[in-house]
Amino acid sequence: YCTWKRTLTRRAREAQMKRFCKAQAIQRRLEEIEVTFRELEQQGIKLEKLLRDEGGSPADQKTQWMNQLLYLVQKKNSLMSEESDLMIAVQELKLEEQQWQLDQKLRCYMNREESLKTPEERAAEQEILVQLLDVVNKRNVLIHIQEEKRLSEL
Questions:
Q1: Under 8 Å between Cβ of 77 and 40
Q2: How many CA atoms lie within 13 A of 109 on its CB side?
Q3: pLDDT tens-digit map of 30-57
Q4: Cellular location of this protein (predicted)?
């Protein structure tokens, strides 16, 4: 029993550390996307000014500027999609952590002998179970959203 408990504790710490590392990587990528958004915005502003002040610019130059502007819009849309995916991943990590915490609480209650539980403990156990089911349903909704998004992109 003692070895089993240590193994579970070690695995829980590893899973928590993995979630933490993933959250850090997501945060870094979100910051990179924000910087890229600003750069694209500045490039877009310059191209729009060039197009408005076109004056005597050759037609092929205008076409080139328009193509560059369209490329910037495509890049921005791609980054927005990635940002959306990352925000869903952040929510999923939060729910995963919440599920783990509720699971730990529930295990404590379930490990107690049923005949020794007080009515308050039984009620708390039921409340935790309801919360756990709610978190699982929220995670299911996120997975469903990701699947719909993936299918719509195809």
A1: no
A2: 19
A3: 999 999 999 999 999 999 888 888 766 7
A4: Membrane
Contact 86, 119 (CB under 8 A): no
Distance CA 113, CA 117 (A): 7
Residue for token pair 């850090």: 24
Q: Which two tokens stand for residue 17?
A: 């550390």
DSSP H/E element including 69: helix 59-111
Alpha carbon distance 43, 33 (integer Å): 15
Q: Which tokens go with 86? A: 């990352």
Domain layout of the chain by residue ranges: 3-153
pLDDT in tens, 56-95: 678 888 889 899 999 999 999 999 999 999 999 999 999 9
Token pair of 15 as six digits = 């899973």
